[in-house]
Amino acid sequence: MDRNTLRNQLEIYRTPYEEESAFISDFSELTLDDNAYLRERLEGHFTASAWIVNKRRTHTLLTLHRKLGRWLQLGGHADGNENLIEVALKEAKEESGLNSLHLVDSTIFDLDKHIIPERPHVQEHFHYDVRYLFEADINEKLILSDESISLAWITFDSVVDMIGYNPSILRMLEKTSKSEILL
């Protein structure tokens, strides 16, 4: 996968979610910028995430992010890699220790453009997060990385109680529940 593949996927990507649909064109436009995959692009840059579920589709793996202090899916910066599936997989393995990760589909599962607050030495900026659906063995041992405070498999029924209101996670959860019917 490269920026042309991503651009092609974005051209055909459709979603019934208004908040997600509203920024598809922003993602497409960003693919034209040579620096889009570098965190040094201070206006915003691509990141990639893995929405990880167990094979029975009853749990999702979330991390309590150390810098943001919120429960989130696993993922991170592209750091120059235009293959966002590779980025999502690499980040998920680094942040969880899982070896059983399996990409369910090479097409985009979800998109989210969100603001990252200013921190020392880093100005406020946007992350253009491209998300992919992965499955993993819920019984495999998890290894906590330095980027996380905690790491846990959360039942779908408990996600809202655990994370509170996070529209992008709730959207992925809903998509997972709908895709369960199709599998």
Describe the structure concisely for a colleague.
The protein has 183 residues and is α+β, with helices and mostly antiparallel strands.
Architecture overview:
With 183 residues, this protein is an alpha+beta fold. It has one domain (3-182): Nucleoside Triphosphate Pyrophosphohydrolase (Alpha-Beta Complex). The chain is 30% helix and 29% strand. The chain has six helices and eight strands. Strands 1, 4, 5, 6 and 7 form a five-stranded mixed sheet that branches. A three-stranded antiparallel sheet has the order 3-2-8. A hairpin with a 5-residue loop joins strand 2 and strand 3 (71-72). Residues 43-176 form the Nudix hydrolase domain.
What's the β-strand tally?
Answer: 8
Number of domains: 1
Calculate the mean pLDDT score and round it: 93
**How would you characterize the largest beta sheet?**
5 strands, mixed
CATH architecture annotation: Alpha-Beta Complex
Low-confidence stretches: none
The CATH homologous superfamily name equals Nucleoside Triphosphate Pyrophosphohydrolase
Percent strand equals 25-35%
Q: Structural class, from secondary structure content? A: alpha+beta
Number of helices: 6
CATH class wording: Alpha Beta
Shape: globular
Order of helices and strands: HHHEEEEHEEEEHH
The end-to-end distance, rounded to whole angstroms, is: 24 Å
Do you know the CATH topology? Nucleoside Triphosphate Pyrophosphohydrolase
Radius of gyration from the CA trace?
15 Å
- Helicity, as a percent range: 25-40%
Domain Nudix hydrolase: 43-176
Protein name: ADP-ribose pyrophosphatase YjhB, NUDIX family
InterPro entries: NUDIX_hydrolase-like_dom_sf, NUDIX_hydrolase_dom
Pfam families: NUDIX
